[in-house]
Amino acid sequence: MATQMKREEAPTPPSQLVEMSWDPITRIVGSLGIYTKIDFKQRKVVECHSTSSIFRGYSLFMQGKDPRDAHFITSRICGICGDNHATCSVYTQNMAYGVKPPALGEWVLNLGEAAEYMFDHNIFQENLVAVDYCEQMVKETNPGVLEKANKTEAPHAKEHGYRTIGDIMRAFNPFTGELYLEGLQMSRLTREKFCLMEGRHVHPSTLYPGGVGTVATVQLFTDYLVRLMKYVEFMKKIVPLHDDLFDFFYQALPGYEQVGYRRTLIGCWGSFQDPDVCDYDYRTMDKWGRAMFVTPGVIVDGELVTTSLVDINLGIRILLGHSYYDDWQNERTFVDRDPLGNPIDKRHPWNQTTIPKPQKRDFNGAYSWTMSPRWFDKRTGDYLALDTGGGPIARLWATALAGIVDLGGYIKATGNSVKIRLPKSATKPEVEFEWKIPQWSRTYQDLERFHGAKRGHRLRIPRSCARRAFPSHGDRERKDRQLPSLSSHALEW
Is 447 helix (H, G, I), strand (E, B) or coil? Predict the structure, then answer.
C-alpha cells in the first residue's frame, strides 16, 4: 500500500486594503501624483495610477510663432530642464533651415549639455535620493537597520573617509550632513559650468540655430576645466561611497533588490554631436547619429534592436492613454512621408493635433494631462513603453551594447560595458570605472553599476519615492520590514 501525501498550500492571509496617495510629489517639480491601493497584509500594490495635474499647452501656443524664437520659448516648459528643451529645439531648427554650426559652436553646446547631465546626476543622487537613506529617515522607518548600520564597517572607508555605514547615513542628513552640503556645492559648480557655455540657466541665452553667442576664449575653457576637475575628484570618492551604502541595504533588507522589477525596455536618442560628422541632414541622420558620443538605440528584453535614428524616429507613437485629450485621428495629416520616403503614422508626433478636453478625474477613464508616448515594435506589433532614462541608464545601456564609442582610452564601449577613465586630480590618482550591463531592470538598481578596475566599485541610482513611502506604514514595531511587492500588471501609465 503506497503512502499518499497531500500537499496543501499555505492559507492566504486576509487582505488589508489601504488607499494611499501622494499628490503633489514635491521632491520634484510638483506636477506628479501617485494614487494607490495597497494590501499591507499580502505586501502587494494592487492598483496604482500616476497622474499629472498640469496642462502645459506648448504645442498649441507655439503655433504661429516665429520659429527662430522656438528655443527661447520652449525652454520655459520646465524650470529644471529648460535647457534640454532649448537644445532640442536648436537641433530641429538646424535641420529645418539646413544649417550646420561651426565645430567650436557644437563643442560649446556639448559642454553645456555635459554640465547639465552632471548637475542632474549629482543633485538627484546626493540631495534627492540620499534623503531616503539618511540617518533621520532610517531612524524613523527602519530603526533596526540603523542600529545594524552603526556597527557595519564600510568596505571602502579608506577611499571616502567614513568608517561605518551609519556614518555615511549621518552625512546625508538634509541641510546638516556634510555629504548633503557637499552635494549642493557640486551642483553649484555644475551650474557655473553650464552658464560659462550657455549664458544662464535654466533658460540659455547664447544658443541659436547655426551656432552659439558664447565668446570662446582660453580663459572660458580654463574656468570650465577647473570646475570639472573638482567634480572628477568628488566622483572618485562618491562612487565607492554609494557602493558601500547600497550594498548594505541589499544585505539588511532581503528581497529589496526585487522592488520595481520590470521588463527591460529602453530607448536612447543619442547625445553629444560629433561636428566632424553631423550635418543635420535627415537623409544622413543614421550616419551622424551613430557618430554621437552617446550611441542611440532601442533595447527590448536585453536585445539591441536598432541604433538607427531614422528607425527610432519612425517608431514613435503618441497614444491617448488616460489623458484629458480628444483623438486627432480625423484631423489634418501634416507629414505622410519623411525625406527618405518612409511612411509616417498618424500617431507620430509630426502628425499630432492637441485637442484638450478637461474633465473630472476618473481612474476608469481619463485622469491625467500626460499622453502615453510609445515605440512601435514592427517585429511584434507591440507599443512599448520605453525607459528613456531621466538619468544615464538608457545612454549607458545603448552605448555599451552598440560597442561603437571609443574616445582614445577615456571612454570605450566594449559590447557589454562602458569603460570610463578619470584622469589624475588634485589629491587622487587616475581611476578607471567600468559600467556593466545589469542582469535586469528594476527600481533600486544595479542599473548604474560601475566597477573600479581594481576596486570593484558599483554605483547604483535608485528611484526615490517608493522607499520613502512604503516602510513608514504597517507594523511600526518590526525592525526588518520590507517593501510591498509591485506587480507589473498593477500599473496604469
Answer: coil
Distance CA 88, CA 5 (A): 66
Question: Residue 335 contacts by C-beta under 8 Å, 6 or more apart in sequence?
Answer: 344, 348, 350, 351
Strands of the sheet with 431-436, listed across from one edge? 411-413, 417-422, 431-436, 450-452
Q: What is the pLDDT of residues 463-484, one digit of tens each?
A: 333 333 333 333 333 333 333 3
Encoded amino acid at 22, one letter: W
Residue 158 contacts by C-beta under 8 Å, 6 or more apart in sequence? none
Question: pLDDT (tens digit, 9 = 90+) per residue, 295-336?
Answer: 999 999 999 999 999 999 999 999 999 999 999 999 999 999
Q: 175: alpha, beta or left, given left = phi > 0 and alpha = psi -120 to 50? A: left
Domain boundaries defined on the chain: 17-52, 58-254, 260-462
pTM: 0.86
The tens digit of pLDDT for each residue in 376-401 reads 999 999 999 998 865 688 999 999 99
Q: Does CATH place domain 58-254 in 1.10.645.10?
A: yes
